[in-house]
Every structure is written in C-alpha cells, then in structure tokens.
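Lecture 7 notes: from sequence to structure.

We start with a single chain of 340 residues. Read the sequence below before looking at the structure.
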Amino acid sequence: MTPRQLQEYLNNLVKNQLQISTMIWGAPGIGKSSIVAQVARENNLDFIDLRLSQLAPTDLRGLPVAIAGNNQKEGISTWYPPEFLPRGGQGILFLDEINMAPPTMQGVAQQLILDRKVGCYEMPQNWLIWAAGNRKEDRASVFEMPAPLANRFLHLEVTVDFDSFKAYALDHNFDEQIIAFLAYRTELLHQINPNSHAWPSPRTWEIASRLHSCKIDISPAVGEEVGSEFKAFVTLYENLPNLDSILIGKGDNIDFPKEASARYATTIGLAIRAKSAEEGINSFEWLTTKATTEWSQLFAGDIIRQMRNKNQLAVFSKLIKENQKLNKFFKDYQELLSKF
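Now the structure, written as tokens:
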C-alpha cells in the first residue's frame, strides 16, 4: 500500500478502537515512523517510539530488586519496569526496528506484544502496540522474526509513492525545485545505492529540501550522482517562463515550455507560488489555454492542496464556479478521478 493508504488504514484502526498488534514493513527512509507519529497527532494520542535494536532485554523487562522478608532467610525479588513504558492515558507504543533487534530482545518484546505485559509491568488498556521494520531485500541487517510473534501481527507493507510524497511535501513547504525535480524524475524518489553512503529516499529528500533552501549542496544527502543531476535541473530555472507575470494575469504572450523538465518546473512552480485564489485562477486559465489537458490536471490537484493550506479554498472554489471554462474543466476532472 502507499504511504497515504497506510495512514488511512492506521487511522481506521484507531477510530474503531481495534487493539490489534500491527507490523509495518517497508524500505528504509520511506516514512514509516513519521506516518505513525502523524496518526498519533491527528487522534490526540500519546506516542512512545522505542528503538528495540538499541535496547537490552533488561531495558524492557526492568531490573530485579530484592524485597526483604520477616527474617534474613526470607525474601523475594520483583522487577522494576523502565520509566519509558506507559502508565496511563491512551496512546501508541511504537516498536521501531523490531527485526533489527537480536532474538533475545525480540523474545522479551514478544511477551509484551502477545500478553500486553512483561515482568511485573502490564500495558494500560487504551494503548496500541504497533511495530515497524525493514525487509531483507532492503539490504538491512535484520533477524528473522519468530513465527509465533509474526502470527500475532497484522502485516502491512508500504511502498514508495510519489503522489503521497508530493502531498506531504506541499503540506510541509518543501523547496519548489526539489518537488519539481522529483515530479520529473520520480524514479529518484527512492533508489538504494549499495556503492554510496548517501542515496535518495523520502527521508533524505526532506533533508535535501532544507539544505537547498539554504543554498547548500544536497549531494551529501542524496549522493553525488543524483546531486549532480539536480544541479543540472536547477539551471532550467534561468530559462523558465516569467511565472510572476502569469500569476498576475499577464501571461497572454507567454508560451508553455516544450521540454518536459521545464514543463514540470513551470506547472509545479505556479501551484507553489500562487499566494491567493486570484493568482491560482490566473495560472489555471493560462495553463488551460497554453498547455495540453494532462498539465492542467497535474496543476489541479496541487493548486487545490495549496489553496487549502493557505485558507483560500473557499474563495478559489467560488471563482471556479464563476468561470465557465474552468468550471467545466473541474467537473470533467472530478468525473475522471471518480473512475479510479
């Protein structure tokens, strides 16, 4: 499933109060832990992220403490649980990198997952236990998950998806040129390179966005080869149409670029730069006049999200209804989406 579908599935588990242990599988860097944290925030849940690969069995089970009896020959020991385990309220206990933990650690975690208790500790009733891990084919140093443990999990496998990434990037104000480059070269969103310490993934592209916004080379985040290709793409911006003129409705004499990379840069650039509903409408009218339908459709999804993020969606919708050409386009566009 895509990251967006994973988020929807996890939200449904929360809304239906299904305390079913859930395992999320996927390649490193695609946002598994970020999605779980976002689900917790959206549902006002506490969130505890435990990296089991960094813990020893006693870290989870607790420490044995002697309790004296009535005389020197009597006494018992009990286990004092760690402070990071939840004591009350409601939330998500997230066991990240579970299959990178050695078998002894997984064995201790198994008791917590299966019985919701370990040692003298018992999980509060309103807490969910979810976990995540990488697959062997992702070149991760993982251990085999014991069959009894695997059989108690729901298993959700998440794959890289550019549309989910772009929605996240627009919502979190990623650099325009990063989004435009990946729209043009979607295959570079996630590409493990065994010959390089740095390689592109949704996680490293988020880092790259922060670097590029500060005019710092992104190659240390995504690798030299991808970084060089991005630099070449950025030079396109010197020859793009005057986007500012299009945004203010003065694009009648401006043509849509012929090169594919420049077309992506123009379409996404207009969506990101539109600060008001009026600028969004001006851009939309220009695209529907100057470009073929697929570019207007690409723009439509992005501008709606941007208008929502900028609290301009109501005004934008009103202007669409008043514009006969754009109103018809949107009706056809919505009908097309309903078929998928």
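The CA atoms of residues 14 and 43 lie 8 Å apart. Keep this in mind for problem set 3.
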